[in-house]
Amino acid sequence: MALITTENITKSFNGSQTVLRDVSLELRAGEVLALLGKSGSGKSTLLRTLAGLVEPSSGRVTYRGRAIHGANPGVGMVFQNFALLPWLTVLENVELGLRARGLPSQERRRRAVEAIDLIGLDGFENAYPKELSGGMRQRVGFARALVLEPDALLMDEPFSALDVLTAENLRGELMSLWTSARFPTKAICLVTHNIEEAVAMADRIVVLADNPGRIALELSVPLTRPRVRRAPAFTTIVDQIYAALMGQAAGAEQDTPLRRPLPPATVGGLAGLVELLGAQGGRADLHSLAAALSFEVDDLLPLVDAAALLGLAEVAGAELLITSAGEDWFDADIPTAKSVFARLATANAPLVRVIADALRTSRNGRLRDEFFLDLLRGGFPEHDALRQLATAVDWGRYGELFSFDAVARELVLEE
Ligand SMILES: Nc1ncnc2c1ncn2[C@@H]1O[C@H](COP(=O)(O)OP(=O)(O)OP(=O)(O)O)[C@@H](O)[C@H]1O
């Protein structure tokens, strides 16, 4: 049974950039659903839409078949940064949601103590958040959501602020509670950028593509619990998702700075990646590459996307292969490497090409950064526009195509 649905929802903030386009999704009773995607693909926005905290620009959201306007009464939320009130004790933090529902104080206390026990915080009722470790704080976050006994538990990167061991421990405990009869909610929806976390926890994974956020892939995870990360069936699913996420980069068709944004990778990061690939004989499994670097997928993807966009490497399934251009760059002396990079960036990175062309046709080979930022603001929010320009300047400067005069705030053509 569908508990919460979104029907063809689209969302743009302030009428500008489209963050979600035509997303239809169901959260069903009995399932753990993971929303997976790169940073900025709209995962949090989609989750907040399910919670009724964000109103879609078009389309509708229903809870048990009824359209919702405003906060969804059937959900409890857990946030990445715990979102606890520091001046309240654990017990008071957990009771807070019940207070809003107008429950009598004895009933509030009974239910809060029960939720605190369930999540393993027994004995910490009177502690303040600052006295607790990160893992314990997030347990309070869980207790505060579960005490409401909501139909659905919505979690926005709940483990990503915790260290690796604490996160793994809490994930394991949450999943064993979920499979026990004691768990008070009927469904879980988890936002994550961590592929292994999604495969470890979810029954169904929806992968979002970015620019604008839309559903790129949906797959079910037919593995029994508890799940073993090293099992071949587990890694096969992880690899499948890696390949799908990488495929998105290769699929970008239109060649303009707004349609084909530059992945936020520095030349230094690219050189590191290509060097590592070279050292591994020119090909590497993305899954083990991420593991070898102790990277999360979010950290690795911009580098891989940038290497693929520039033509330094190719993604084939879940593998990254160095191209002959990548080898030329890697093997060359510095001046040759710079000119190889300049050629690749001009051919394959639309923003770099547009800047170089504009500077060539300008009166004195100089143009104010505001000129390019204005163009970029037509397609990106401020932060992303700045990041696009910074990436282009980094690439253009290394390739000796143009530089940036920070005093005059002008881009300057290199001769
Ligand atoms: N309230 C808002 N006002 C304007 N833009 C917003 C707002 N909330 C989100 N955005 C924009 O929407 C896009 C998607 O953001 P969202 O947080 O949903 O993505 P995400 O996939 O969860 O990313 P991350 O993993 O980095 O949190 C981003 O470009 C972000 O800048």
Automatic annotation (TrEMBL):
Going by the entry's taxonomy, the superkingdom of the source organism is recorded as Bacteria
One MF term in the entry's GO annotations: ATP binding
Q: Which UniProt keywords apply?
A: ATP-binding, Nucleotide-binding, Transport
InterPro entries in alphabetical order: AAA+_ATPase (IPR003593), AAA-associated_dom_C (IPR018632), ABC_transporter-like_ATP-bd (IPR003439), ABC_transporter-like_CS (IPR017871), ABC_transporter_ATP-bind (IPR050166), P-loop_NTPase (IPR027417)
Q: Which Gene3D superfamilies does the record associate with it?
A: P-loop containing nucleotide triphosphate hydrolases
Domain ABC transporter stretches: 4-235
Family annotation (PANTHER family): ALIPHATIC SULFONATES IMPORT ATP-BINDING PROTEIN SSUB, TAURINE IMPORT ATP-BINDING PROTEIN-RELATED
The protein, known as: Nitrate/sulfonate/bicarbonate ABC transporter ATP-binding protein
| Annotated source species | Allokutzneria oryzae
